[in-house]
Amino acid sequence: MRVKDVKKVVLAYSGGLDTSVILRWLQTEYQCEVVTFTADLGQGEELAPARQKAEMLGVKEIFVDDLRETFVKDFVFPMFRANALYEGQYLLGTSIARPLIAQRQIEIAELTGADAVAHGATGKGNDQVRFELSYYSLNPNIKIIAPWREWELTSRTKLLEFAEANQIPIARDKRGEAPFSVDANLLHSSSEGKILEDPAIEADEIVYQRTIRPEDAPDQATVISMDFEQGDPTAVDGVRLSPAALLTRLNELGKANGIGRLDLVENRFVGMKSRGVYETPGGTILLAAHRSMESITLDREAAHLKDSLMPRYAGLIYNGFWFSPERRMLQALIDESQNSVTGRVRLKLYKGNVSCIGRESPHSLYDTRVVTFEEDQGAYDQFDAQGFIKLNALRLRLGAMVGRRGGAL
């Protein structure tokens, strides 16, 4: 259903064909003032053209914000404290960017007195859900315009015709049909659609933009170290870096070693299955390092509880519930678990693989006096294991005896 009586709208604007058409469409269909917001999340694109195009289209209030540090520090790192993987594989690179974009849109709406926000997500995907759940969580009275659910511009041809009729400049290389769509930020790149729609066909090498083929990676392994403080990485090879700079460095290392490729068929929140090709070079290294750091610093039951909650946490992020009370509750539990996750991990990067080859921490729970196969100086009495085993076997023994009496065994 179409939103009515909109005076000013904040549009999440990339400067590309789709959002430029949306900009003009909002101006003509809603007769409202449009404020554009372009976020630099490390997607690797020049953002100045977005500002120039917005100015050319008559926009008076233009926001182009560098959010890379905020993105990594306040969204990516909290998610990695949880070791979050959706459906056991996806590192949630697109999902985790949406709440930040939505948050900034709502802030800009308050700054400019806008009564509505708009996005360019389609009516088939997850992003419309992520954006709008975030909008409503932050401003329950905000009006939301989702052009792809309203207009009749249902093909690329119609978009191009609208652009030409409304004097929207189109780059020469954008006139042809794109072979697949791409979303990118500092954490990952995501490619889907068109030539990737058949999950039986291997993705062409042109799809991969952030990693070299593992087969082409160096024959010599790269060994690095990573330092952690309370669950967050702080340094690579002893060099302390800001959150965004650290992830950038990990991306460089991952790219050079062919690390972080994923070809996945996933279950979208809206109900359909989708095939996506993801590249998360730095995130793949970070996940391996963080889990290795936790392996010596987390209590067994705390670690197992955390792992049992991870799929729920990952699902909340994937489905767009970053600002929900349940995600905040889980985050509080996760963050509490990270108090002792401090130390250094050494990793070997080799042809698409990440292996931990060493870990140390001032809070390590690993005690060589207990685990040694040599003389343990009384730190562990092996005879005690007999009673431990018998107590744990009691219900099994009782069940076996009942089974024998009943002829079941």
Question: Strands, helices and their partners?
Answer:
Elements: E1 8-12, H1 17-30, E2 33-40, H2 48-56, E3 62-66, H3 68-81, H4 98-112, E4 116-118, H5 127-138, E5 143-145, H6 156-165, E6 181-184, E7 189-192, E8 222-229, E9 232-236, E10 239-240, H7 243-256, E11 261-267, E12 273-279, H8 281-297, H9 300-319, H10 325-337, E13 343-350, E14 353-360, H11 368-371, H12 384-405
Parallel strand pairs: 1-2, 1-4, 2-3, 4-5
Antiparallel strand pairs: 6-7, 7-12, 8-9, 8-13, 9-10, 11-12, 13-14
Helix pairs in contact: 1-6, 3-7, 4-5, 7-8, 9-10
Proportion of beta-strand residues: 15-25%
Structure classification: alpha/beta
Strand order, largest beta sheet: 3-2-1-4-5
Number of helices: 12
Provide an overview of this structure.
The chain has helices at 17-30, 48-56, 68-81, 98-112, 127-138, 156-165, 243-256, 281-297, 300-319, 325-337, 368-371, 384-405; strands at 8-12, 33-40, 62-66, 116-118, 143-145, 181-184, 189-192, 222-229, 232-236, 239-240, 261-267, 273-279, 343-350, 353-360. The chain has 409 residues and is of the alpha/beta class. A five-stranded parallel sheet has the order 3-2-1-4-5, with helices on both faces. A five-stranded antiparallel sheet has the order 10-9-8-13-14, covered by helices on one side. The chain has a four-stranded antiparallel sheet with strand order 6-7-12-11, with no helix packed on it. Strand 11 (261-267) and strand 12 form a beta hairpin. Helix 9 runs antiparallel to helix 10 (325-337). The protein is elongated. The termini are far apart.
